[in-house]
């Protein structure tokens, strides 16, 4: 009997396929020579600004995944549900193992973490505040992506995999959020399933699937053991539609996946140092920048016990830095809006453990709606951590005032903001008060890491 793969598997399958296609499409006639050998030709192709480098990097990665070298490569794929946001992208409900050999996919398997985690020994102390909010006594693979840095999460997931008696040796690890399903459907178009009501499209597919496997299956008289069959059928329909796309649309699919890589909806970690450098240079490794020496800001949420409430939670941020004082100061306001109307099967009052990463040497002086604040240093950054609660239908604004290191803005002012995987389209306003008291304002949507340079001149 053929193995039944969940939709989560097919999401990553098509994500990887689209990345490979990026190289294959551009260099089809050269494929027997290897993609890397012709990557320089991309400089002469009519891509938009910046896209040429993306395609060259994707070509190198495609060649690595499926190069015909007679060897086997094995990859761990982490499926992250960003309706329940975690620092690394979302709650890990399942993982996959993909093997390639001599240019072809040779083996695929998927694992439900509700079963696999039972094999991991008890007694591993979970990081704060998992024990207090989730009421768990031991840390498991499903909660392993507790860092905003993907390499850290990848290594921790691998550690838990071996604790669960896993036997594979991985060449790389891939993280992917459910946003990628929506991206793919935006290219393939909507899908209808013969055995299930409604249409699955880029706007409703994720939430419709959630409802189908959590509630609707009972209304339809489907046995609980078969409630996830809808995922297989949806995957098969998407596969057929993607396979039937004309070449131009397949290139659109490749561009869409590149966009998801740039948004950190797909994150990559390789054991091969050369390939890891490619991923890092492309901005696809999901790393926290440890080397940036200007002002720095990264806002990281961990939904701990609020079910799938992130579907309803909107965020915005307002950041003011004042360089006119004896020492530079910063004021950060993060506004959360819980748009749900009532408590139901997927939403609760929102509860997040928020960590704000700032330059090492910064000092928190005042805070509001930021319960039980904690302080620490990791990944070359200082962080302030606190509990954030937002009742259904209400709005809460977290406000943090802190002193920045004295060297910030000494000569000129640079700010780097890094995006959390799994959260898209956050409006951010930045206000810089220069040493002479003049003010500059900047507004952008947080869909990638952003550098605002020399603002305070």
What does this structure look like?
There is one protein chain. The chain is an alpha+beta fold. It has 2 domains: 276 residues, no CATH class; 158 residues, Immunoglobulin-like (Sandwich), CATH 2.60.40. The strands form 4 sheets. Strands 13-14-11-8-16-19 form a 6-stranded mixed beta sheet, with no helix packed on it. Helix 1 packs across helix 9. The radius of gyration is 23 Å and the shape is globular. The N terminus is likely disordered.
Task: Summarize it.
This protein is of the alpha+beta class and 457 residues long.
List keywords for this structure.
2 domains; alpha+beta; Immunoglobulin-like; 457 residues; six-stranded mixed β-sheet; globular; 30% strand; 10 helices
What's the structural domain tally? Answer: 2
Strand order of the largest sheet: 13-14-11-8-16-19
SS-derived structural category: alpha+beta
Number-wise, the strands total: 19
Rg over alpha carbons: 23 Å
Give me the number of helical elements.
10
Order of helices and strands: HHEEEHHHEHEEHHHEHEEEEEEEEEEEE
Principal-axes geometry comes out as: globular
Helix content: 25-40%
Quick check: average pLDDT?
85
């Amino acid at each position: 009997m053929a193995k039944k793969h969940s939709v989560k598997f097919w999401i990553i399958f098509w994500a990887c396929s689209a990345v490979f296609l990026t190289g294959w499409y551009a260099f089809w006639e050269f494929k027997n020579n290897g993609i890397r050998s012709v990557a320089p030709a991309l400089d002469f192709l009519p891509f938009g600004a910046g896209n040429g480098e993306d395609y060259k990097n994707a070509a190198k990665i495609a060649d690595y995944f499926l190069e015909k070298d007679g060897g086997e490569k094995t990859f761990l794929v982490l499926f992250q549900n960003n309706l329940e946001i975690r620092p690394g992208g979302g709650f890990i409900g399942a993982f996959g193992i993909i093997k390639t050999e001599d240019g072809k996919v040779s083996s695929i398997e998927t694992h439900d973490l509700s079963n696999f985690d039972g094999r991991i020994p008890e007694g591993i102390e979970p990081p704060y505040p998992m024990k207090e909010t989730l009421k768990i006594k031991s840390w498991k693979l499903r909660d392993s992506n507790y860092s905003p840095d993907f390499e850290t999460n990848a290594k921790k997931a691998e550690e838990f995999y071996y604790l669960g008696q896993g036997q594979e040796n991985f060449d790389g690890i891939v993280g992917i959020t459910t946003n990628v399903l929506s991206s793919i459907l935006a290219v393939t178009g909507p899908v209808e399933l013969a055995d299930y009501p409604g249409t699955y499209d880029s706007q409703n597919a994720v939430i419709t699937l959630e409802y189908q496997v959590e509630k609707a299956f009972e209304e339809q008289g489907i046995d609980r053991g078969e409630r996830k069959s809808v995922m297989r059928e949806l995957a098969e329909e998407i596969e057929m539609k993607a396979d039937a796309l004309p070449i131009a649309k397949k290139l659109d699919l490749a561009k869409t996946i590149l966009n998801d890589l740039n948004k950190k909806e797909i994150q990559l970690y390789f054991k091969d140092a050369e390939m890891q450098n490619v991923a890092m240079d492309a901005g696809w490794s999901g790393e926290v920048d440890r080397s940036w020496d200007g002002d720095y800001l990264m806002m990281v949420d961990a939904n701990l016990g609020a079910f799938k409430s992130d579907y309803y939670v909107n965020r915005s941020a307002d950041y003011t830095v004042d360089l006119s004082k004896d020492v530079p100061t910063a004021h950060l306001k993060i506004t959360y809006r819980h748009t749900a109307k009532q408590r139901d099967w997927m939403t609760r009052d929102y509860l997040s453990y928020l960590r704000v990463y700032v330059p090492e040497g910064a000092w928190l002086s005042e805070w509001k709606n930021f319960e039980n604040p904690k302080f620490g240093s990791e990944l070359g950054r200082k962080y302030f951590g606190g509990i954030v609660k937002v009742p259904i239908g209400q709005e809460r604004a977290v406000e943090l005032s802190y002193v920045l290191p004295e060297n910030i803005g000494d000569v000129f002012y640079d700010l780097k903001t890094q995006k959390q995987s799994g959260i898209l389209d956050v409006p951010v306003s930045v206000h810089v008060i220069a040493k002479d008291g003049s003010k500059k304002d900047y507004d952008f949507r947080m869909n990638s890491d952003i550098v605002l340079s020399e603002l305070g001149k």
